[in-house]
Amino acid sequence: MIQRTVLIKFAETTPREQLLEVVDRFKALQHKIDGIVEIQAGLNMSEKSKEFQVVLMVRFENQQAVDAYTVHAEHQAVVAFIGEAGRIDSIGADIDI
After folding, report:
1. What predicted TM-score, i.e. pTM, was given to this entire model?
2. Which of 70, 60, 66 is CA-nearest to residue 97?
3. Which of 27, 51, 56, 69 has the fewest CB atoms found within 10 Å of its own CB?
4. At what angle do helices 73-84 and 63-71 cross, to 10 degrees?
């Protein structure tokens, strides 16, 4: 199983409502893309790395599921919305669990 964790930094002008919409759209992917085992997402509550407002975590069955997810149209639609919402930067990592 592979876990991907992504932290996203948004513009200071991005309203909280849009950040929550990012979280909701990301969570909805679990029911739209095969190979996803679990999705967790939310607003960052930590004082450390607080410049990254949204945390996304997804667990995949295997590497093939990760590869399919990356190019899937539903995922790409969420990526586009994140950009429209004011994404400035992001950092991600995949680990084998």
Report:
1. 0.91
2. 60
3. 51
4. 60
